Amino acid sequence: MIFRSLFAPLCIALGLVGPLLSPRRTPAASPPNIVFFLVDDLGYADVGVNNPNTFYETPHIDRLAASATNFTNGYAANPVCSPTRYSIQTGRYPSRVDATNFFSGERAGRFLPAKLIDRMPLAEVTLAEALKQQGYHTMFAGKWHLGPSEEFWPTKQGYDLNFGGYSRGGPYGGKKYFSPYGNPRLQDGPDGEHLPIRLAKETSNFIHQHQDEPFFAFLAFYSVHTPLLAPQELIDKYTEKAKRLGLSDQPAFAEEEQVWPNAKQPRRVRTLQAHATYAAMVESMDRAVGNVLDTLDQLGLADNTIVCLTSDNGGLSTSEGSPTSNLPLRGGKGWVYEGGIREAFMIRAPMIAQTAKSSAVPVVSTDFYPTLLDLTGSPMLPEQHLDGVSLRPLLEGDSNLDRDAIYWHYPHYSNQGGFPGGAIRVGPWKLVERYEDGQTQLYHLDDDIGETTDLASDHPDRVSQMRQQLHAWYQTVDAKFLRPKPNGPAAWQPQ
């Protein structure tokens, strides 16, 4: 490498640019690399490509979207974090192993929640393990939240390197989003170093080190999860922006359904994007995305690197500070309404000559696994990723996918106030089933993306058919449901 670095300028001067300066691997000879961005709690309407009127500034994500296929009906497999993370790593619905809530989430409401498994089983062949079998170097940076102890953390699940992934669901140690981090899997940086930028730096360093061989870099930001913290200069920027736009004095909340019994305060949902600290967190995360994209460009790797970006659930709009609005979507994190499960969802696949700019076909987080195997020419593992479908046809411009429905199952009382429930989407139709009483709601999302008009009474046959389909899926994945409290009434169960 020293010889190459000294001799290359001379070759350029003499016009002898040839095999010596060519990469040791070319896109034709080397499997494509993969960079996967997973942003914690990012709302569908937080990014400019999905919401031109967003208060936040996401130029680098929008830049990625411009060179990718943007899936406007992209979904997380669950309205909270750990289950969706499981679905990405395994290609399976989390209900198959009862990993149906964030790991450790066992809040009770009118009933007890379903029993929860709080770890991703080691028997799963993770996406990283599948790629390692094909010679990929793998690394993980950021939030893991897929097991309570070290034997379940990234290096035990197929990742060669791990920067910051362990049991916790947020940056809760040290100075949280600033060094010292108090994270047992991330060495502290200089005092005050910002976590998203540090994670991007580790990812870029890994890409530099493995630029001549296939790599899989998974950057799972702790951002934009609480605690709400960001560099002060960015907070000041958005405080001024809110004032300049006249947002500071506008009503920011509306009433929302109160699910928790004996709650002391009414439930509210944010309806206005104007939270300066959250906006600063979004921009910091977006800058970190840009740093990694710039690394790919600078090393000449962009044309041979697949890039994915999504979130693990919808934006936080009904609890814990309620920093963002998901409008026009209803609800947010912890709810099976669209605001809790519809995500920013994009894939850049440079090996496809003319990828579709966007796709409105419904897709879900289980689909990343088979899609990435397909795009890299790796053997498919249908017994592992049995709930995912390769999205290659959509990337190539097709308007149909061989799948009958997408399903959700959330038998828990969310920290964000959401009700226990399930859902099924078939084409434009979405049926929501509430687990406390079995009541159903029906929405036509093409006409009513905000789920404001329940059409169940107008289409009883469709409700019956979709409900039967949903219940059959419950049986397929061995779904568990609410349990009665001691000496309490029996909980509803599907028939």
Q: Which structural class best describes the helix and strand composition? A: alpha/beta
Q: Major sheet: size, sense and barrel closure?
A: 8 strands, mixed
Multimeric state: single chain
Shape category:
globular
Number of helices: 11
First and last CA, distance: 67 Å
SSE series: HEHEEHHEEHEHEEHEHEEEHHEEEEH
Low-confidence stretches: 1-28
From the alpha-carbon coordinates, what is the Rg to the nearest angstrom?
A: 23 Å
Order of strands across the main sheet? 5-4-6-1-9-10-2-11
Overview of the structural elements:
The chain is an alpha/beta fold and 495 residues long. The chain is 24% helix and 14% strand. The strands form 4 sheets. An 8-stranded mixed sheet has the order 5-4-6-1-9-10-2-11, sandwiched between helices. The chain has a 4-stranded antiparallel sheet with strand order 13-14-15-16, with helices on one face. The model is unreliable at 1-28 (pLDDT under 50).
Strand and helix map with partners:
Blueprint: H1 2-13, E1 33-39, H2 59-66, E2 69-71, E3 74-75, H3 81-90, H4 127-132, E4 137-142, E5 161-163, H5 195-209, E6 215-221, H6 232-244, E7 253-255, E8 268-270, H7 276-298, E9 305-311, H8 338-341, E10 345-348, E11 358-359, E12 363-364, H9 368-376, H10 392-395, E13 406-410, E14 421-426, E15 429-434, E16 440-444, H11 460-476
Helix pairs in contact: 2-7, 5-7, 6-7
Q: Any key phrases for this structure?
A:
495 residues; alpha/beta; eight-stranded mixed beta sheet; globular
